[in-house]
Design a protein that fits this description.
single chain; mainly alpha; globular
């Protein structure tokens, strides 16, 4: 599909057409269609990617808005809900880094927490969620000096490291994260 081809080739035309087709599909799934959240999520992901490629802030804002709408429709027990939570948290984090808006950082932490709750100990993406929330908490500590943020960040980094025992190829990054937090 066009999304996959864009991911491999980086051709802007493919991303533009994919966004257009996702939007057309969304029109065919008016609320309260049970699959509407899938199209909202797809458009949001594509717009987020477009922002990362070209820096259009309106793309990032729309992606966040669409992720919000998708999450309202996402069934609570859906196995992909944690991915959408992580995606909106990541986009809020990016917007925080660009604008410095504290609300974006707070929301990013909140969404990361919710995603983490949906990723139990054996979930393959739990270590990613742990690292993401630890990074956000470390940032909040650096900004506001709340010691409990730093302690919680270190705890999350340690848990993430435990999920990557030697000789895991990514273990070095988790060791580095703890060292930085300490």
């Amino acid at each position: 599909d066009l999304w996959i081809r864009f991911k491999h080739s980086g051709r802007q035309e493919d991303l533009d057409e994919a966004i257009s087709l996702y939007r057309e599909g969304l029109e065919l799934r008016p609320a309260p269609h049970p699959d509407r959240y899938l199209f909202l999520n797809s458009i949001a992901r594509a717009l987020s990617t477009q922002f990362k490629q070209y820096g259009g802030h309106e793309d990032l804002d729309e992606a966040i808005s669409l992720y919000r709408e998708a999450l309202e429709l996402f069934p609570a027990a859906h196995p992909s809900r944690s991915i959408s939570l992580n995606n909106i948290a990541s986009d809020l984090w990016i917007r925080f880094e660009q604008s410095g808006r504290q609300e974006d950082l707070e929301e990013a932490i909140s969404f990361h927490r919710e995603a983490l709750e949906l990723r139990p100990a054996q979930h393959p993406l739990r270590s990613t969620s742990l690292t993401d929330i630890a990074t956000a908490l470390s940032t909040r500590f650096n900004l506001y000096g709340r010691r409990e943020d730093l302690e919680e960040a270190i705890s999350f980094h340690r848990e993430a490291l435990e999920l990557r025992p030697a000789p895991h190829p990514g273990r070095f990054a988790y060791l580095n994260n703890i060292a930085i937090a300490l």
